[in-house]
Structures are given as structure tokens and as C-alpha cells.
Predict the structure.
Amino acid sequence: MKPIILQGHERSLTQIVFNAEGDLLFTASKDHIINVWFTSNGERLGTFGGAVGGAKHNGTVWTVACDSESKYLMSGGADNTMRMWEVNTGKCLKVWEYETAVKRVAWSEDDELVLGITEQRQGQPSIIRVYALNREDGASQSDEPIQTITLTGSKATVALFAPLSDNILVGHESGKVSKYSVKTGEEVLVNEDGHRGEITDIQLSPDGTYFITSSKDKTARIWDSETLDEMKVYATETPLNSACIAPLRPYVILGGGQDAMAVTTTSQRAGKFESRFWHKLFEEEVGRVRGHFGPINTLAVHPQGKAYASGAEDGFVRVHWFDESYFRSRPFGDLEPEVEV
Amino acid sequence: MSAIKTIKEDWAADEELGDDLPPTTETTVDGITTIVSWKLNNLDQKVKVTRRVRRRLQTQLVSHTVAERKHLPKFGLDKGKPSGPDRTTTIIGENLHFKISATTNKAVEVEQKEDIAARATGGKTVVCRKCKGNHFTAKCPFKDQLAAIDNVDGDGMDEEPGLDKAGGLQAKGMGGVGGKYVPPGQRGGGAGESMYRPRDEYPTLRITSLSYDAEDEDLEALFAPFGHVMRANVVRDRETRESRGLGFVSFERKQDAEKAMAKMNGFGYDSLILSVSWSMPREPRP
């Protein structure tokens, strides 16, 4: 397996996402710019921001999300704005401004809705806003959200739309996982028994019936999207920054490392900068991929399960296309359930 | 522009600057393409870059939208750049060994090390002192027979008193089994003389779910009220020096240790509940 190393950022990565076909990879970083790459050969198609005189985020880009048609891109940053971009041209279509930074954005399944989480700071509460978008004319968007959810208690750190987009699945700073209704803005379900630390990432399974969260409490957990029941726990020895579920094969990929301030006192051999593959069903570690010089901040898996990418504190993105041996692997022999490839 | 031209920094530097770099040329011979391109380095000197590549066409079936995206013009910082990966932003990494397996990584590493060790000795010429075979003397298959002959000869060298049979046959420093080094104090099965009292002689408590911030001194201070603490230490990671949340405390007297265990098991310390038990002697290492 030869990774493609993308060095288009000057600072650490914050979030990376594939588009629906998996041919594009969007990478957001603390250097204010979003890059888009062809995943097949690592060629950079362009940058969102960075051109002289063009619109761009004026601070860390915390989050990025692409719709299923690869037409529009949403991003949120520390400059207290959420932006909408045209994927094919890199043009900034719309800017929403807030009181605090935007930490997470996500699209609904039908691409009609988009949500953004703003940070709790300076006396401002953490708020999730949901917007209905005009998909015909990208440049004319409403300033007013159709739903505003003000969070009381622990702030929201990550969120995404549940299947069918009636509900929003939210991960909180306290480790709580909850579900809010888009229509009423009320909390429908909550599970506080899982994580004991801040939830750092949330990603849906290919069919949407379950999702994975990673947390600073050194575990990743899989939850039922409908009932919020905890299904699986993957306990590692480092705080986790990201987790994703690989399609095709029964694996989950976890990434983490310790805080940036502890990096210089850590030996690379301590193995904290590796992406770890865990068996989804047996909750056993089955492999590791090394390469980064810093903690992995974000992981994304190709929607068809052919590749995965990791972005780290060291500013590099590594795209790994799986070898054939990965698809044939059966680490637990006959115990392994049959999976269609 | 002319002002720059008059200041000649280096006689070897090319006089031509800036715009008129020779065009990139490509020649293909026997399937190997030679690409000659020119660029300016940071001293404004012309640099010739020659790359030889073999191109192989790979066909891939993709959906229409993906194929159309391949022809999009570049935008943002890459505006106007030609298609194809730019070597300043994209590099191909080294081949990674990645295998999905149920064993943990550590087991694999140990195996590899042993492999390397085996190969290292395989490369050298090893001659047995007993039978002149291609192996270490200690592993000689004929050593029993040859030793018997040696003894008949009355060599004397092998008849050192106090050494048992196996020890007498082997080179000094070689241990009993498998040719691994065994320190003199531990040879022949019996425990040798040691300078230190073995740790297990003192009643020792094992403290788990200990705060990661606790130091040896904290642990000693915590258990000092129960009696004289001989030793208190926190177990740390060998590489990172991070605490592993585990500590050992040895008391001089057993009743003190019992008292401490009764009192401290379940004691809240730095927002964690301590669990205290007797320290079990470690099983012999393989």
C-alpha cells in the first residue's frame, strides 16, 4: 500500500471529507484554506480561498461538508462565519455571520437542509441552526434559519442528520449523545451512559442505521441511530480524535493521539500517531497504519470502501488505497461473517 | 528588469533571467519518456530538471459526473496550472506494510526481530569448536559424545569442580537452555548470591486506579501514617515516562501493611477510588 501524501496545508488539519463518488477529497485546516483533491492521483483541483482578492475564511476552518451531488460545499470557521461554495469553481456563494465560531456543518440526506453548530463562548450559548437551501440558485440563500436549537447544559461539539433527515444526532462535550427533532427543535432521546469525555467526531454507517463516535475518553462507540442504544465499544489507550466505519469490510478506523502540547515528549514508537483498524464486531484491533508525525485529527473513508484518508496535526493528508489483500482478509478465519464484496 | 541585469551576482549564473526559460521537452524512447524542464531556483539561477518515467495506461470505469470533473479547470491557488499532479503538493509515500490480522502488532514486531537475529548469524561463518560444523558450539548435536571422549582423554579442562554437566560443556557465559545468555548468579537452576534483598521479602501492596499525577513521594506520604514505608514507587511507561496508574508500596512490617490495606482500599484520592491488594510475585519471564 503506497499512500499519496498531500501537502497543501501549512497548518494542522481539522476535517477531511470525501464526496459521494469518492473521487474528490476536501481538506480543511487551520491555515484558513480549504483544498480539494482528486483522490485517484492526488492532483489538487483547487482551493476555496487563497486566490488574491477572493473571498475566504479569515481564521481556522473548523469544518467542511460536501453535498451528495458534489455541487455545493459548506464550511465553518473561527472567523464566526459559515460559508457556501460552488465546488466546480471555488466561488464563495453565501456567507452567514454569527457571534461565535462555527464548529461543525452537515448536510441532510436530500441536500435540502444544512446545519451548523456555533461554539459556546463569550456568554453565547451553543446553538444548532438548520437552514433550508435554494438549490437552483446557489447565490440567493435565506439568512434566516428554519430551526434554531439552543443547547442548555453541555455544549454540542459534533452533529449530523439522522437517516431521513427528521432528526439530528448530536455529540456533546460531556460525552452525551442526543437526538433532536428538526421540526420541533426538541430533544427526543438522550444517552448519557456512554462516553465519559468530549465527543470529537461522529460519522454515519453506510446504511445509516448506526453511527460511530470518537471521544477524548479513549474509546469509540457505535450507536443505534434509532434508539441511541450503545452497540459496540472500542477501547484504546489514547484519546481519539476521529473514527469512521469502513464500507465493504467489517472494520472501523480510529485515529487519535494525545494533545498537541504533549507531542514533543512522546516517542513516535509509542504508536499514538497511527490509524488503527479495529474489527467492528469482535472489538479487537486488527491492524495499524503508520506514517504521520503528529496526532491524527481527522479520518475519512471512501464511500465505496476502496480507500481511506487521514489528516493530522503535522499538516499532511495521506490517502491510502487498499490493497487486494485487505479485501480478502479474514483475521478471525471461520468466525468471520460473510460480507459481500 | 535592466537594473537587475547589470548586477551580476555570479559569473557562473546564467545571464538570462526570468521569462525566457527554455520550453519543457518530452522525448519517448522504448516506452521511457524523458522530460526535461527548466526552473529558477531561489537564487534566480536556471536549473535543468530531467525526469525519466515509464508511462503505463490504466483504464478505469467511472460515472459521467466523475469523468466530467476530471476536465474541470483549476481554481483558487492552482488557477491556470496544467492538469496532472503538482510535485510540490503531491508526493507518493513509501510502500507501507499493512496487513489485517488478529494478532496484535507487538507479536509481529517480536517475530520480525527474531527473524533478523537468525539472519544475522546465518550470514557469518560460525564454526563449532567440537565438531567443526556450521553451528555454535553450544548447539552442537554431538556434544554429548564428544564430551565423553574429552573426559576419557583426561583433558582436565572440562573437569572443573562445582559445575554440573551441562554447564561444564558449554562455553563460559552460555546458559543452560537454548544458548541464551544467563547471568552467572542464575546458572544451574539455583539462585545465586545477590547484592540486594529480593523485593518480595517485604510485604508489598499493589495500588491500582491511582491518579496519573501521583508521584513516588505522594504515594509514600499517603502510606507513611500506617508504618515505616520501605519503598514506594509508581509504575511508568518506559518510553513516555507517563504514569500507568499503578503503584507499589512495601512496608517493613506485615501488620502495618495489613492495616494500610484495610484502610486504603476504596479510599478516595484525587477523585479516584484506590484499590489496594497484595502484590503477587511476578511469574518467571519466558
User: Anything to note?
Assistant: The first strand of chain B starts at residue 25 and ends at 29. Chain B has three domains: 1-92, 146-186, 199-278.
